[in-house]
Specification:
Length: 308
């Protein structure tokens, strides 16, 4: 008598990525809302600003908060609220641009260094040398040599972040290149660009997203420090650091000149860092779920990213 064999039931794989990532906890939800408000206000600065942020009005200098000037005016009679809104555009642009450039360059260096040992021996010593120099001093040196401009400041902030990204990618590549599916691709004669694109790069995406949030927050803070020290963008350009740098001369008589831009800066950096921490926890949970014997509902692990 033939016995009908029923197919083995499959258990759906659920991962944290399918959930609402940015609203997973009340803290992350609040951080997401705050960051969204900061970004939206910076984008909409031309429509939200009640006054020209560059307009000098000596007769209106150091005015308190009023219906005309919601956050008062600075030492040159410029509206503080308008300068904070426009300052967010520059500060966020530098943070995002530095994160993109450092990840792009660090990814290329890390991929090559992790795959070729002879390149790794030379390139990692260069990266170690850059990491040995304090990032602020290196950024000040670059700005001093090239002059203060938006692109110069962005490059000065990007250079110290490249070694951290490169070492992160290198560590992922060193562990991934020993996997059987990568060795099989090499044995079958797959080209190097194809191996990197299909088998190595997909494994670096999640760590780079996490690292990118930290680089963005660090770049925003570094730009504020450079501007506060007078080594950043020209003082007439509104940035959060420039606003605080100009307000320190009047701190005893009007501390709000430093308080309001400092508060917005702190909210932006804290929100980005909280989202980065949540992304890191999410990445750890995914790695635990994809490991053999993990909690993915199967006996074995998940198929490696880009597996052939």
């Amino acid at each position: 008598m033939a016995v009908e064999t029923l197919p083995k039931p499959t258990i759906p794989i659920t991962t944290p990525w399918r959930g609402a990532f940015l609203t997973s906890t009340p803290v992350i939800t609040a951080a997401t809302v705050c960051l969204a408000l900061v970004i939206a206000s910076a984008i909409a600065a031309p429509w939200l600003s009640p006054h020209d942020p560059l307009l000098l009005a000596p007769a209106q200098r150091l005015k308190p908060a009023s219906a005309q000037f919601w956050l008062g005016t600075d030492g040159y009679g410029r509206d503080v609220l308008s300068r904070i809104l426009y300052g967010g555009r520059v500060s966020l642009l530098i943070g995002l641009g530095s994160a993109i450039f450092s990840i792009g360059i660090g990814l290329a260096i890390g991929l090559v260094s992790g795959f070729f040992k002879w390149v790794d021996a030379v390139m990692m010593r260069v990266m170690d040398g850059l990491m040995a120099i304090p990032s602020i001093l290196l950024a000040i040196a670059v700005v001093s040599l090239s002059g203060a401009s938006l692109m110069t400041v962005m490059v000065a902030i990007t250079i110290p972040e490249i070694p951290r990204v490169a070492r992160l990618v290198r560590s992922v590549v060193l562990s991934t290149r020993e996997e059987p599916y990568v060795e099989a691709a090499i044995s079958l004669g797959s080209s190097l660009p194809k191996i990197m694109r299909r088998h190595l790069m997909p494994n670096t995406i999640a760590p780079l997203i996490v690292q990118g949030t930290y680089v963005c927050a660090s770049a925003i803070l570094t730009e504020a420090i450079l501007s506060f020290l007078g080594a950043g963008i020209s003082p007439e350009t509104p940035t959060w650091g420039n606003i605080m740098a100009e307000g320190r001369a009047y701190f005893q008589i009007k501390p709000s000149l430093i308080f309001w831009p400092g508060l917005v800066l702190s909210i932006a950096i804290l929100s980005v860092n909280l989202i980065g921490d949540a992304a890191r926890d999410l990445d750890d949970a995914l790695q635990a779920a994809s490991a053999p014997g993990g909690s993915d509902g199967r006996d074995g692990g998940l198929e490696p990213c880009g597996g052939g």
